[in-house]
Structures
1.
Amino acid sequence: MKKIILLLFFSRILIYAQSGTTWTEQNSGVTVQLTSVSVAGFNIAWICGYNGTVLKTTNAGTNWINVSGNGISSTVLLINIFGIDANNALTAGYLGSNTFVYRTTNSGINWNQVFFQANGFINAVWMVSSNNGFMQGDPVGGRWSLWKTANSGLNWDSTGLYLPQAGSEAGWNNSLYISSPPNRIWFGTNNSRIYYSSNYGNNWIIQSTSPEVNSYAITSDNFSNAFAGGVSLLKTTNSGNNWAVISSMGTGNFGGITWNNLISGNNFFLRTWYVRSDNRIFFSSNEGNTWISDYTAPSGTYRHINNNRASSFYIWAVRNNGGISRGLVDIGGGINIISNEIPVSFTLSQNYPNPFNPVTKFRFSVPKKSLVKLMVYNSLGNEIENLLSEVLPPAVYEATWDASKYSSGVYFYRLEAKDFIQTKKMILIK
């Protein structure tokens, strides 16, 4: 699972999935095996792979910058990455029986080795804030390799993190999830168990996954629901006190599970995606009760999928041939992102067409993360539709309104965001 290399080229394609996710193939510029992806902001993502490969985007994948080398040997096999923001990231890898962690604070221009362990294997790094982070690796000398940092990954300390190894158990790369808050930790093993801490590693509980032996991938909704994948898919609804096998699609080992939340009015929707060792991405809109095949890659096998900032509308999945798939998640309610370029200011454009019958569109710009409301009023000033009330990241959006159930006349639409309020008139003619 950790050392398969397949060199293939891929072409750019675009499809629209049943889930409301738009999947786009992106040009990575490499053909090596990519092993881990981390979301560091609405438009920012970091990817690592074999041959010391590190890629970064700051424009939602329109361009990927190769920031390999610069302190990372091309012989190191990188298997996990965590991006803090556009400038700061940490990546872990191995060479032979030795493991390394590298850190950049200048967008990948330079990488500095901040951790080394002989006969070890660091599986994952997770920063719970810009300063504080946790690192998990395979056992060394009879104890799990667990570490914390309080200075953005510059130094690592294992004090107070003693967890003995049971038999010859080991872990899996990328099989770590930390909910923040309240800093609950899960990490997977090959020993029919998941290790869980409710207090950021001070104490550990063994959670049985039997009959599933391996837990290659883990994710949680930061409440009580969580998923884990081995050769089958498991779910818990009580923070892991009980894990049960649930139905899933596809075959092969799970490589990654991730999620995105949607709040629409008073309703909360947990949407989940996973990949396993084939060329498909699978999706559930109902917390794993049912699944669909959401996307099929043109070539290669998926290794990882992630959106560790679950409020982002972008999800990335990487493959063993340099392939990158980006999912743009539907916000819901007929709201779509039409450009991820960060606008200069809030704007609300005139609806089009206008006059209209019966469907029209509203375009608006959000320059910074904000609670955005979009309402429709009748000629008497009464609110008749609440199209949007959600925190949105910076982007240009388009909303669609179907006025089929309303009569001809003058209507108004209003955008509110922070200190910006604007109302425009439109005419419905039937």
2.
Amino acid sequence: MRRVKCLLTAAAFLLAAGVFARHASEAGQRADSVFRNVTVAVSEPLCERDARALFEQEEAADEQERGAAFAVWGELADQWIVDPDLGRRAQADVLAVLGSAQLVFSEANGLFAGDAKGCLIGEKTAWELFGSTGVVGDEIRVGNGTRTIRGVMREPGRSVIVAGGLWDITGQSNERELPRYDRITVEGAGAEEGEAFLTRHALAGGVLRLDCLRDIAWLPELIPGKWSDFSGWKENYKRKAEELELIVRVRKSGAELFYEKQCLACAWNTALQAACVLAAVRWLFLAAKFFDSLKGESYYK
């Protein structure tokens, strides 16, 4: 009877481990639907003119000297979005992207660089405004202009993405008062692409390593070329501490907060999954011990 209880308990823990594994996988997929490339937080946000100058510098460079593709973007939080036909309004985070929006958001299909008349809309915002997600081709008013919806994204759901022109949203004309671009997304999955971009364009900032919250895959980055290189251990630890400090200190956009939440959910569910697997192994071990003890008793009888 005790052996049966142990086996049932082990089965319950294995079932729970499967549930946590599923939740971790779903959180990881939601995170990947937002960001896949490396993002840089710029210490001194760029005005429209300086942001466009980065693209001009890349185009002027020789083909061999050009770096990875990139996009510059900024966010205006809690802007009113209006359906001009029905007069409905909804608050959303407006993200203005210079360059390919697909570099920033993996689901940003249909909005091309320089499309001043189009936009992408998140599912939650679409439901609030239209009561449906089948809204491609409909129009919304963003700031002072009307834009045609080119596509609908699952995440970030409470958002509108436009192709550049932050001043078009606010209606401000004084360049000093214009909102700024404070993020640069560089094609690539490693921090080295972001660091190389900052160095090449002499920009102050740091790579926003939100992926460090997702799992412990970054631990090997602490290991220097040689295990006996104590200065290498110290330097790697210092760099990692600076990256984690930047995550805490920087003001995050709505999309980044969503990504951070999904990474933490992925890490938490993975930890719970591991704990359940260990607990199941323990109960299976106890069941085996009870089975051995019963065999011994029957043998002596």
